[in-house]
Structures
1.
Amino acid sequence: MNLSSMTAAKIASDVRGGALLASDAAAAFLKLSDELEPALNALLHIDKGRVEKADGARRGDLSGVPVLMDDGLCVRGMPTTCASRMLEGWVAPYDSAAVELLEASGAVICGKCNMDEFSVGCSTESSAFGAASNPHDTERTPGGSAGGCAAAVAAGYAPLAFASDTGGSLLQPASFCGVYGLRPTYGLVSRWGATSLAPSMDQLGVFSRTVEDAAIALSVVSRPDPRDETSDRRERPDYVASCRSAAGEGNLAGKRIAIVTEVKSESLSSDVAEAFERVVSLCGKEGAEIIELSLPVSFTYSMPCFQMLLAAEAGSSLARFDGIRYGLSAEADSLAALYLNSRAAGFGMEAKRTIAAGTYILGSERYEDCYLRASSVRSMIAREFADAFMKCDLIVLPTTPSVAFRKGEYDGDPFGMCRSQAFTIQASLASLPSLTMNGADRAGLPAGVQFIAPKWGEAGLLAAASVIERSIGPAQIATQERGR
Amino acid sequence: MGQIYEPVIGLEIHVQLATESKLFCSCSTDYIGAEPNSNTCPICLGLPGALPSLNAKAVELAVKAALGLSCTVRDGTIFHRKHYFYADLPKAYQISQYDRPVAEGGELFIPGDGGSPKRIGITRLHLEEDAGKLVHSTADGRLEGAEESYADYNRGGVPLAEIVSDPDIGSPREAREYVSALRRLVRYLGVSDGDMDRGSMRVDANISITRKSAETGEVIQRGERAEIKNMNSLRSVERALEYEIRRQTAVLERGEVLVRETRHWNDVEGVTTSMRSKEAALDYRCMPDPDLGPVRVTEEMLAAIESSFPELPWAKEARFISEYSLNEVDSAILVETPDLAEYYEECIRSGASPVRASNWVRTEVLRVLNERGGSIDSLPVGPGALGELIRMVDEGKLSTTAAKEVYGEMTDGGLPLEEALKKCGAGEELSQESLAEVVRKVMDANPDVLTEILDDRDAKGKKRKFLCGLVMRETRGQANSAAVEGLIDSLLQGR
Amino acid sequence: MTLKKTEIGAPELELAARVAETARISVDDEEVRDLAEYINEFLGYADALAGAPEEAGLPDPSAVEGYEAREDVAERSDVGDSVLQAAPRRIGSFFVVPRILGAQDEEASI
């Protein structure tokens, strides 16, 4: 069997059983990434050392499974650059919580993935180390900010990759690259060690090619963590069990699945509209009751609300980069110059714009009509979703309004580019879990369809996705021939 | 038309909370004398991905202080990020509190200038993390002219409670009383050691002058206020404010205008100098900290904290006055720290009379403490031993002079009470023979008195007591006065 | 939703320059213009929000229930040592910063 197309579940079980060596799985990763990287540029770092020691990995749910981490997540001993000159060559001195949990379960962390600089962007084009490419069509972006992770999983480098999602940084690339992407409820997975962008909305999630792999990954990383005050302490259900039992005999009978009135097919590209129809119709076939709900506040005001809060929080999160304790430190004969020059040289233009906007709107002139207003609108959006979940079990909607766009398409038009997040910002704002799957015909470019669940509803979400997966299948490894 | 210039003073005091670890991480707060940057971690260094973790004890101590100040404590207090760039601030924001602080609306009573207690309102109390420390490359260590500075983040993240008073303070003296009372309170509650020398209590003042009509009291003009920093002792607070009052009054008298500014007190020169104009006030762009949730403070927590309150300084002071018949001044001295008050009361429990014990503690004990430094626990003479010694004086077994000698031996020589008594030759029961010898000697030296007694001219026993007193003096208080009287009687019979 | 774009004039450029200074990012003229245009278009979001309904007192969606604050125990981290060792400018156990006082004095001591 081609190691590159093996699922995490299979690799782990074979390694535990002795049928497969972890080093072989890791070697397959090296070989494939070596071959495809010139075209994809999905990776920023490959950890040959860990790859070599793969057979020493612990025994657990992810024994011997090669996994990749977005370069915004700290891995001790590996560079963590956030795809920025500001942290070029910076080696993290400590591990993220997710990394600790993954290694404890036997996973082999093989490297770090390319991303938009400091997660600001939707295409990975703002990376200081070159844009990544979509494996389905290298003229197109894999999306962003976690585009490198999505591309790597789609190309078959590894069965799992982990990244933070803020407004769609994980869901949108998953959609563009045709893989499964899971953004958990805010507070389910510890953010310890994940570089913050917008701390009230950042949440660590996973890319995979099967629903079961996503469930296994989630069960490993979703432990409560006292180091993260926003980490929830409640007991986690058995995600893998939910998933497996649904995949086996489950269906969607008795489930009310809602489509959103405000998401009109006119605003979608034809391939997305088609993918969406396919998935909705599958839900119906599996026994779900399809209803329609209106969420006017959420689908009119999410974008301005999200952008305000993102800018304010991001500007704050990125203030600490000043060249004094770590990171790029410019030549300077004064403290003022040190700040001004280091930050000018370290940040790319995208990051600078977001910082500038965020800095401005927290000022006393605009705080009220920008930040406070956005905060209160956010609470209304969350309430609107909570009310909706009284009437349904899941909400289904397209993940992105169109398929992956071409590189350069939004040069000089950052506001245009972020429209690709139009349907992923709501889950961030309302702190809800969302899972995206490729609803498109496998012959065409991927088009994601997502299910949003109520808070802490990952088990139901994974179960429903497992049912649909029976029909649409796992994510296929991308090859260049498709999608032109 | 007469005019008066009235000072309007408010104090902002930062108190370092007595916790083991920092406000948002587990690094030690014991930074004085520590190797620079040895008490640091990803959190207090502001590394990417690091998240704050709130110290429960810091919240408890802040609430305790708030309750001691009779504030209303908020359930659901939140933290804000206060943004500014400076080399001692790793995240380029300080985690502090803005419009929903831990507590608001309290009071502290001080001895007012008029002689009666004066109420000083407390505006608010909030929690915040301390910044790191900067050392400068100049020879005198000052910032001005330094080509380089050196950052030590050991202090960064240490928990502080900022206590802001209403502008109710009316004079430098009252300001000093306020700081003193607050210091006493935080020490009593175990909230902070309140040490201005070591920086665990830092005082900033806001002061302005109001010009009023002397006749009607009507306000004619309110001067702009100045913030005064760098007052590192009670005395500095008083002196700095005295200077500022003179300075501001002079400006107003000249018909000139004061600007809102921050001024730095120079203790050596005895002046305040302008630091920067507060007109260009920093906009801190405060934002609620998304990494931290609201802090719940329940009724149960408040009750538990209140029940752990020790007797507060003003209550103890009043009790000492009534229970031990002390005057206000002496009582105030004895309650200055809970340790000292406890020492005093332990002396009384060990047998000392309250008034004599008060004298001893205020003079001898405090003298030794000041000479040696250190804490009351480290004193060579414990309250039990001192109490016994004082009791011997109470009972007439020892004169005060002799007792001081004994105390000296115990303190300097480190001797326990028994041995010190022996060494001074004091407190020993004289043998009957030696005592009789002394009695005979005294009788022989006072034949007239003796005659009067023998002639039955000592109805009230005063002459007998006189002789007894002489014997006691002769034996330096070592004799038992009852035994002496007995001996006098028996020897009289022989005469 | 298209955001409005108004003309960029001197006030907008001045604002952008001031904001860049506040955020401690040195910018050249081209970048000032870029930021001015960005901020200007970005503020269209404020206009959009102004049309949203008003309601106060709703709970914060990201608030976590029932977390417990940390017990007050001091623990040493060795990460601090590695950060110091890797510092961009270091003398002994100190991080070094160049001349603090200059044209812009922002001594914000506590």
2.
Amino acid sequence: MLKLHITQDDYGDWMVSVENEDGLLNLLAYEFATSAKAVEHANDWMKERKVQAMVLIDPPRPPRATRAALAAPDDYPKPEPRKAGA
Amino acid sequence: MALVYWFSDGVGNDVRLGGPDGVTPVPTAMIRWIRTKGSPALIVYGGDVYPSGDARSFAEFLGQMDHDVRLICEPPGNHDWKDDPTLPPNGRIPHGYDTFWQGHPESRQPVNTNKKGGARYEHAIDLDGWRLIFLDTGDYDTNPWPAGDQARVTWLKNTFKPGRSNIVVAHHSRLSRGLHGDNDDLDGLWRMLFDDAGAPRVAFTLGGHDHNVSMYGPRSRDNPTAPSVAPDKGIHVFVNGAGGDGHYTQHAFLGLGASGTMPDIFADDDHFCVTRINLIDAKSADVDILDFGKHAKGDPVPVAQSLVQIRL
């Protein structure tokens, strides 16, 4: 079964990664302000693609997103996909 | 000369924060720059007031626009259509959207209360020899345009200016690259943008929906997903849904990543962006992307490779 991983990147933003049956991981959507946003987009994706997936959500890290955003460089690469619980 | 700005898919609840202080909503940072440094004649918010276009979502939107919607119009997005009770005699409508814009007659977004459904929000604005035609594709998933209403087809046909100085604006785009991809159910609408001989009646289209930027060269009536054609044979397609609510990848992945036509002029799936349309005269317009980066911390950077010079 497909898995959708809802996780945070290094700067506290939320992202959605998909893991296929072979364990290959790909980044779908990213730079969301809240986990709820990422879940909403994950649900929209499953509905639109007509697929079922297990959704795994990391607990939020300590709320330092604002500090992280301020400290983040003006430009940084897109996050790499991540598994929840890793 | 008139400057028009487009941003989309980025207002309402839980949008990304940034700006100079790190806690300003990205769309607020964008609109403040547009107003203070952009000399706008018109600002198009391309649709989707998150999460569901209800009254609470629109209250958040108004705050994010600094309580000023005088220059703004909004073709409805799919999220606006999530607040869709059927209200006789108006038919099924995006209720929060309808209520909000009726309450702001100072804006550039009319609501024609004599019509039903999405036709209520369709209108045209003339600027410096160009006609911008705004359509409601927000109900795409349930009832793609024209949602069975032939009066909307007739209205569109009668609204085109002679020649090609027309711009069609809607939330969904015929071509797009991202988690949504091409909107094939708009093919009937796409074909209407050409005359019977296949000559374009429109210079370009503006859309959003996919949360990234895709800019396409002129595409033909019969095969828009094929490579670009000569400018007199096709219509440019500009997509920008990078307005403040995260990003969608443009990369394919074993059928599980992005879909849709790859853009041939410019693509970006990592920065927040505004589209700038410079209507120079009735036959000339420049379109480019203003890159607000990851956080909209300061002035945007015009993206040179995104510049398209429309010369009719």
